[in-house]
Amino acid sequence: xxxxxxxxxxxxxxxxxxxxxxxxxxxxxxxxxxxxxxxxxxxxxxxxxxxxxxxxxxxxxxxxxxxxxxxxxxxxxxxxxxxxxxxxxxxxxxxxxxxxxxxxxxxxxxxxxxxxxxxxxxxxxxxxxxxxxxxxxxxxxxxxxxxxxxxxxxxxxxxxxxxxxxxxxxxxxxxxxxxxxxxxxxxxxxxxxxxxxxxxxxxxxxxxxxxxxxxxxx
Length: 218
What we know:
Blueprint: H1 2-39, H2 56-62, H3 68-74, H4 86-102, H5 109-125, H6 137-141, H7 146-153, H8 164-184, H9 191-212
Helix pairs in contact: 4-7, 5-7, 5-8, 8-9
């Protein structure tokens, strides 16, 4: 029993490594197989509903020895700015967020703080085209749930901060935490963790920052 328990973590790590390698190989095999069928006239693209594989952020978690250009050549899910599909989804959320800002439905402090902090962190730790640096600043802005979180999650008036300075600081901390989880954490994206943590801290920031404004009390 003791021997089995001591070997369990090693077996788990081996199973995880095997599953990652198998998933990578199967995704590449599926793409080549479908391409051959289409070239032979035995398959039409309209018959395919979806093709599931690892996201670009997940690929970067396990591929630190290659350049970003090499990853884009090997993995078909990489696009121009982020991942194919993800960059367009994020562009759509960005357009919707700008519309909300133009209509004054949401405030600008939290989105600006989050996107600015993520951009700054990505610029500080980006090392040319190395995948070990976590990708380019534009890659982080247009991958994962970046724009969704910036304009449609952290701008929630109930769970977020109420003062302007606290909203700006909360947004910046969310951006920093998302980058830290993406680059050094155990998950491909850290938006959920960052938002939940800042929701807990937001009342304290409101209390501290509003109390320092002259003529205002909490």
